[in-house]
Design a protein that fits this description.
mainly alpha; 8 helices; 0% strand
Length: 193
């Protein structure tokens, strides 16, 4: 359904702007698909959180995970339904775990996260390939900056919010590891040059 919508929008854009090459049209369609898909998943998470009275907690989880995914990347589910389920599980799971862990675990988790980020990030998938060593260094640098800002933030907020941020950082860093690639059937792009 979503692919038909993005295909239609892309075709309309090509009709209006005929100088769009087929390669550009493909990129536009993919960007639209990912954008609409991501926005709908985030909205679903937020809407469900309202009657549960955990909107701010879920919003914090989405922001912390999303900010890291921009630079560190991570594996992707093969289908939209799997993506939606895994996204719900990771976001709501981090909120639930944060409720039951009574102490701040930020320092312990961030040591693991920094290590995994150094070893494996950014993720290199065919859908989002790392095209050069320079690109990889840039993404890793931004990832470390984001991690450092999130770690600083965890020292300034309550235990509940600190743990949500920390657990999401851990989830994102695990999603860049070879084990995560293997378990989910993802492959490296092998485009880095």
């Amino acid at each position: 359904m979503l692919s038909r919508i993005t295909e239609y929008i892309t075709k309309q854009a090509v009709l209006i702007l005929p100088d769009i090459t087929p390669e550009k049209a493909e990129k536009i369609e993919y960007g639209l698909y990912m954008g609409i898909s991501d926005i709908s998943k985030v909205l679903a998470l937020l809407i469900v959180s309202i009657p549960l009275n955990i909107f701010l907690l879920v919003f914090t989880a989405i922001l912390s995970a999303g900010s890291l995914r921009l630079s560190l990347g991570g594996i992707h589910s093969k289908t939209q339904i799997r993506c939606l389920i895994s996204y719900f599980l990771s976001i709501y799971g981090s909120v639930y775990l944060s409720y039951i862990i009574p102490i701040k675990i930020n320092i312990i988790i961030f040591i693991i996260v920094y290590t995994l980020t150094y070893l494996y990030a950014p993720a290199d998938l065919p859908s989002k390939p790392i095209v050069s060593s320079k690109h990889k260094r840039k993404l890793r640098f931004y990832g470390f900056i984001t991690l450092s800002l999130l770690l600083l933030l965890t020292t300034l907020v309550s235990t509940l919010f600190a743990n949500i941020i920390s657990i999401n950082a851990l989830i994102v860093s695990i999603m860049t590891t070879p084990l995560a690639y293997k378990l989910t059937g993802n492959t490296l792009s092998k485009k880095e040059g």
